[in-house]
Amino acid sequence: MRSPQEPEWITDQGGEAFAHIYRVDAVLHDERSAFQRVRVIENLDFGRMLILDDAVQTTERDEFIYHELLAHVPLCTHPAPRRVLIIGGGDGGLLRETLRHPIEHATMVEIDRAVIDATLRWIPSIPANCYADPRARLLVDDGIRFVREGGEHFDVAMVDSTDPKGPSLGLFSSEFYGQMAALLGASGVLAVQSGSPLYQQDLIAMVQQHMAPHFRWVRTYLGAVPTYPGVFWTFTVGSQGRDPAGVNPEELVERMRHIPTRYYLPAAHHGLFVSPPFLQSAMSAG
Amino acid sequence: MRSPQEPEWITDQGGEAFAHIYRVDAVLHDERSAFQRVRVIENLDFGRMLILDDAVQTTERDEFIYHELLAHVPLCTHPAPRRVLIIGGGDGGLLRETLRHPIEHATMVEIDRAVIDATLRWIPSIPANCYADPRARLLVDDGIRFVREGGEHFDVAMVDSTDPKGPSLGLFSSEFYGQMAALLGASGVLAVQSGSPLYQQDLIAMVQQHMAPHFRWVRTYLGAVPTYPGVFWTFTVGSQGRDPAGVNPEELVERMRHIPTRYYLPAAHHGLFVSPPFLQSAMSAG
């Protein structure tokens, strides 16, 4: 039996024989929502951590890597985004980064209010004040249904989802990407998280194959997130107009001039699409 | 008490409250050498792993990232390297990568024969056949003394060391870098592993400060190694001739044309020196 003095550690499994472990210095929140277990813990090294079921979703210290990569690449790929759609992203980090651009409107559709509320209360630096921005609209609703019902136009869309199981599964389907493409115009851009190139290669291939019929360009790009097991992480972007890997470097600098970032840099944009050879087969699987 | 059926796990501590853990599927080698504990274990996800004291040094599955970055950046920075010196690097991976270039000679000075032998026997894919190459000379000796005594000329040198404690401490001193510069000519290049930008920022600053008096250019570059806690890892290169970040892209392609790699790419060379903003203060600490 664990003694009361012994701190608990959380295990985030990568492979079967490899994991990241985090000491639980305090449990701030622990709730079973209608969709998942939602926890916020305090950890000396990574600060406050959001954990959904048993997977670390984001942490105070490294959240900006994932959110900046998922937001700024598609936003800079579109020549002049005005209306943006976010599916998922309940922690608010993606909406926060999106609103740094001079857009007119952003709609965020998150299925689980518990994630929104837990992050707002316990890790307020992630959503920052994004929900108070008059350009933002928050809907607690099923993103798949929202996209299927259509009726609105967006320039850029992003999907910030958990792994493809349960309620997230439909977010990776060809049908969903096709309905999404219908909401986006002739220059429309969609970016999604597409999993680990080390142990979810089938997922990357599936995303690419499911996007291909609906977008002119489909490109996978790479980031490194310290709190994701295996570290390397992919994002896949579909674009109707411009090639995401071909945006003019001077335009990137100009577009990001007044947007302070901690990870994404215009000078590194094109390098994100240059996959190391050992990941090339995974990243160009489609 | 641990039951005999329960597998052991190895813990590689990052911060105080964060670690990577690996299941020990078999212990292949466990020895206390004159310098350190040398272990080789088998792990389902990373293959065979070399562990010195309690730190994972390298693994069968991801060793190429570290070795390619530490070898090809300095070798391509020198316009025509003929003679190469490696200090440390007992697993042989750095010598293997070095010998892929059309050099005339490489001397490797490793202080601990136990590391050489354990890797040769249990992870032969890392040294490959590098010691049998007639261009290679292996000395089991104190690298600090070898450099201090001088008397030989090299074009490129690399230091593949453990953390700066015990026998490795002197490998990070200004005196050592000065003696190293004396062995290298007017176009000489030195590259060293300089630690984690997340939790060894003082080390990076020290390496930069200690190199600065002895080299015209001092540049820190970045890699991501899944089995190093915190993942991001730095290397620092001192150069007397060319700017390591300014080598002509077409020359890089030409130099690497017949050298197959799994991580390092000429197209990504310049991006290695573009540090994400959150690491800029750490990487330009000097």
The second-level CATH architecture of the largest domain in chain A is 3-Layer(aba) Sandwich
**Coarse shape of chain A:** globular
CATH homologous superfamily grouping of the largest domain in chain A: Vaccinia Virus protein VP39
Number of helices of chain A: 9
Largest sheet strand order of chain A: 9-8-7-10-11-13-12
Mean pLDDT over the full residue set of chain A: 93
Q: Determine Rg of chain A (CA atoms, Å).
A: 18 Å
The name of the CATH topology of the largest domain in chain A is Rossmann fold
Number of strands of chain A: 13
Structural class of chain A: alpha/beta
Largest sheet of chain A: 7 strands, mixed
- Percent in strands of chain A: 25-35%
Oligomer state equals homodimer
Terminus-to-terminus distance of chain A: 49 Å
Largest interface: A-B, 37 and 37 residues
Low-confidence stretches of chain A: none
Query: Under the CATH scheme, which class of the largest domain in chain A?
Result: Alpha Beta
Reading the helices and strands of chain A in chain order gives EEEEEEHEHEHEHEHEHEEHHH
Number of domains of chain A: 2
Helix content of chain A: 25-40%
Task: Give an account of the 3D structure.
Two copies of one chain form a homodimer. Chain A is built from nine helices and 13 strands. By secondary structure, chain A is of the alpha/beta class. The first copy, chain A, has two domains: 9-59, Spermidine synthase, tetramerisation domain (Spermidine Synthase, Chain: A, domain 2); 63-283, Rossmann fold. A seven-stranded mixed β-sheet of chain A has the order 9-8-7-10-11-13-12, with helices on both faces. In chain A, strands 3-4-5-6 form a four-stranded antiparallel β-sheet, with helices on one face. In chain A, helix 5 (174-183) packs across helix 6 (201-211). Chain A is globular, with a radius of gyration of 18 Å. The termini of chain A are far apart. At the A-B interface, strand 2 of A face strand 2 of B.
